[in-house]
Write a structure and sequence with these properties.
The structure is a single chain. The protein is built from ten helices and no strands.
């Protein structure tokens, strides 16, 4: 009966949609689900990073556990926004002209944290790369807030007396 109503009213939307459109409509997450998954993923990222920081003080494998958990936590936190905007849109925005340098620095710093922990086994170098990763991730994150980078630059110059 519903199909007859749609046909008579001229609304044949389902028949004209392609199979890909129908699949996309059935597999798309609702907004409430996206928010919940974002929060879960972001909180898990923070928990992994904090847990990694606590594991740093273990005697034998503390540095490697720290590097793994901290890097995994950063990836989870960074990846959590994919639930809000979708993976393709997230990748496009990550490699946009305004964010590409910060994105590259974040990923290179993550790799260097793991290298410093697993192969080089130099704790000071590992911590230096973590600090670089943290600031690059912060710089990347504030790029989503309009005029935030300009405000941070201005505040930094004022604090240094270079105004």
């Amino acid at each position: 009966m519903d199909k007859l109503k749609k046909t008579l009213s001229g609304d044949d939307g389902d028949e004209e949609q392609g199979i890909m459109t129908q699949i996309r409509d059935k597999t798309t997450l609702g907004w409430g689900t996206r928010i919940k998954l974002f929060i879960i993923c972001f909180v898990l990222g923070i928990v992994c990073s904090v847990l990694g920081s606590c594991l740093l003080w273990l005697a034998n494998d503390g540095l490697t556990l720290f590097a793994v958990f901290y890097t995994f936590g950063s990836l989870l936190s960074l990846g959590s926004t994919m639930f809000l905007m979708g993976p393709i849109n997230q990748c496009k925005k990550m490699f946009a002209e305004t964010r590409i340098i910060a994105t590259i620095v974040v990923f290179v710093a993550m790799a260097l944290v793991l290298c410093a922990a697993f192969w080089w086994r130099i704790p000071g170098l590992c911590l230096m790369f973590v600090v670089i990763e943290f600031f690059a991730l912060a710089w990347y994150s504030i790029s989503y807030i309009p005029f935030a980078r300009d405000a941070v630059k201005k505040m930094f110059f004022i604090l240094l007396g270079l105004n």
